[in-house]
Write a structure and sequence with these properties.
- This protein folds into three domains: 211 residues, FAD/NAD(P)-binding domain; 112 residues, FAD/NAD(P)-binding domain; 112 residues, 2-Layer Sandwich (Enolase-like, domain 1).
- It is built from 14 helices and 22 strands.
- The radius of gyration is 23 Å and the shape is globular.
- The model has no long low-confidence stretch (mean pLDDT 97).
- The structure holds 1,4-dihydronicotinamide adenine dinucleotide (NAI).
- The site of 1,4-dihydronicotinamide adenine dinucleotide has 25 residues, from helix 6 and strand 18.
- 1,4-dihydronicotinamide adenine dinucleotide (NAI) binds next to helix 6 and strand 18.
Amino acid sequence: MSDFDLIVIGAGPGGYVCAIRAAQLGLRVACVEGRATLGGTCLNIGCIPSKALLHASHQLHEAAHNFAKMGLIGAAPSVDWAQMLAYKDEVIAQNTRGIEFLFRKNKVAWIKGWGSIPAPGQVKVGEAVHAARAIVIATGSEPSPLKGVAIDEETVVTSTGALALRRIPASLAVIGGGVIGLELGSVYARLGSKVTVIEYLDRLIPGQDGEVARTFQRILARQGLDFVLGAAVSGVETGAAGATVHYALRKDGSARALQAETVLVATGRRPFTAGLGLEALGVAMTPRGQIAVDGRYATNVAGLYAIGDAIDGPMLAHKAEDEGFAVAEILAGRAGHVNYGVIPGVIYTAPEVASVGETEEALTAAGRAYKAGKFSFMGNGRAKAMFAGDGFVKILADAATDRILGAHIIGPGAGDLIHEVCVAMEFGAAAEDLARTCHAHPTVSEAVREAALACGDGAIHA
Ligand code: NAI
């Protein structure tokens, strides 16, 4: 008999959710994790710590820019960086301890150490070899290296180093205008750094709605971030005074340089599968270096499964979680299901940016007839009271059937608002269904209803 029904390798959001759900469904489960705490990149050096710094720096921004307008008079707070980092670390600790508690509660054994797979059905950790009926690889991702750029996590950092800088830099060059670059760029811009984002493409947040991206850039520029778009970085030199980023403008090939105290490299992530022994096992990979799986997350090796950032799809904690749920259910003899058409994406800046489903660009490229209902937060009383009238909600619906195909929101609470559209889409709702749903007044969610109304006879407050 095997030691376990299931061994999950990796205790990030994909792995720990998979382990807990499988245990709840009656399997004997272990989870292998080599980090000193559970929770993976997300809880330790990703989503959670960045949200702590985003929250703290947003409060500072509010105090400096909006308090006096509301009659709240007093000196704007100054930053105790050591305390801000201590607050962030405490938030991490509360969350990672929470997962430990959940493992104990659900009888998931934590095997401490880095696992490898010497043979099908076996996981080696240190000198011990554990047997399992099924193995799920949930080892996540790591920052992609950039040619000509050496990371030292002090002067030239990835998101990991950016969450623990020794001091707030006077200037920060961010390579990559994607999610990490803009979230962490926002943090340091609010804390007083001169932030310049250098992006290869001619736009920010590629793949997302173009109108949202343009609005987003305008708002961030007003918050003090500078942008160099269409720029190919060729290298970074470091010296006593910081770093020099060398890049060429793609439109004319002209060489440029930017000095900064600190450089953040945020040009994407790649699957983290080194050391697992996949090559020796003969595990099939995709051309992009991801583990190849079928619709049930099974690899080509019997009993070996993979989920999350290690396989294809958006590198998002909640996508990994959903796959963790699904594979646990499949292993327990149930159906398991992930609706890849309804996976929201959120950028936790202020304002937040959120999206789900199709973009106008993708629908146009596919030749699909659609209608777009748009509503500005300027027409929302609650948003105006919060100085948050910038941005809009856009709902895309099928031109013939009115079925909701996607939504794109930039504005207050976008990351929460998107979920009513997700639920609507999950139920196959029409825009009219959202429009006919009573929304409490005054809430920012009324902007979603108004955008749905704009897909039909028109919004009221536009
Ligand atoms: P990303 O894919 O979001 O953005 C990378 C950006 O770098 C792109 O705009 C790309 O065009 C640009 N780029 C690539 N090579 C470049 C070069 N040589 N010079 C200049 N620009 C270049 O990747 P990012 O921001 O590193 O995030 C990694 C992953 O983590 C993403 O999949 C992201 O979705 C996920 N993540 C999600 C968060 C969230 O959901 N809130 C937060 C942080 C990360």
